[in-house]
Amino acid sequence: MWLKVKRNILLNPGPATTTDSVKRALVAPDICPREKEFCEVVREIRNNLVKIAHGDDSYTCVLFAGSGTSVMDAAINSVTPPAKKIAIINNGAYGERMVKIAQAYNLDYVEIKYEFGAKINPSQVAEILKKDKDIACLAMVHHETTTGLLNPVKEIGKIVKENNCVFIVDTISSFAGIPIDIKDWQIDFMMSTSNKCIQGMAGVAFIICKKSELEKLKDYPRRSFYLNLYDQYLYFEKTGQSQFTPPVQILYALKQAIKEYFAEGGENRYQRYTENWKVLRQGLLDLGFKLFHEPEDESHILLTVYEPELPGYNFEAMHDYLYARGFTIYPGKIGNKNTFRLANMGEINTKDIKKFLKALASYLKSIQR
């Protein structure tokens, strides 16, 4: 008999609220990850992640033990060719993180920089790639969770390919939550993780790769021992195993989360998230909050909210008030602007959002007495 687990509503942008069945999947018999039985679990996970991205046999999935940042690191250090440049679009904290990774490896990079939350100018990107033929690849973020902005990946992908560059995309917070077509969007390397919209547990990250581009990496310099993408891929292909010890129980949970994704259906999950977003957005406006983006620019899975100018308001106090009632919220990440963020991804629904809004209204009332 299973013990009942307290259900928290996580409105932070990952890890997300999970089902009890995903939690229970963590409790599996101990097994050496080198056994054929576990290799079959890994093979199934890798194949299904490619399917979720709408890839075919020309794509493969490479798993790493780590957070989303681990695969950002692996992609950037592995895919950038020697004596060539990587262009990085930076309009948020995660684009900025990719720049920092390039700097850490002393890569030659071109930063296409915007203010946090600013929209990308495709014409500017095209002009930069056209002028600088030393740029071999371009990296960008799909859903910039700094603000909840959805970037135009498909449009940029067309520009990238017109300039014969490799396209690297961070879909860490959008994969399995927003419809993505890796082939149609011309993505060569697509990064994500197990603990956001796929609704699994934290500890596994992955890159879905176009095989023809992946094979080109075999002669590139090894800039990292643990996070070399080609070496990890080759080991999977030869043995069915990860080079290094994987998080076994987390992979069992991911297998269950993928099963539940297919049961719900990708479009249905996106619609559920969209309904959550609509209720949350309108509820915040009704309570007098101001929002950072216009609705047409938002991802439908995260909102950035300006902090209210109210006597007695304090973010930490609001966080603690809501946390005590089962709701987790997250601080903002936009320089000196006073904001906080609310994500509506994970195993939550509009009833949960309405309960949250009621608790938030109660907090506002408590400081205005």
CATH top level of the largest domain is Alpha Beta
Oligomeric description of these chains:
single chain
Shape: globular
Order of helices and strands: EHHEHEHEHEEEHEEEHHHHEHEEEH
Q: Could you name the CATH homologous superfamily of the largest domain?
A: Type I PLP-dependent aspartate aminotransferase-like (Major domain)
State the end-to-end distance: 47 Å
Mean pLDDT over the full residue set = 96
Taken together, the total number of domains comes to 2
Let me know the number of strands. 14
What's the main sheet like? 7 strands, mixed
Q: Can you tell me the residue ranges where pLDDT is under 50 for at least 5 consecutive residues?
A: none
Question: Approximately how much beta-strand content do the residues carry?
Answer: 15-25%
Question: Could you estimate the helical fraction of the residues in percent?
Answer: 40-55%
**Which fold name fills CATH's third level, the topology of the largest domain?**
Aspartate Aminotransferase, domain 2
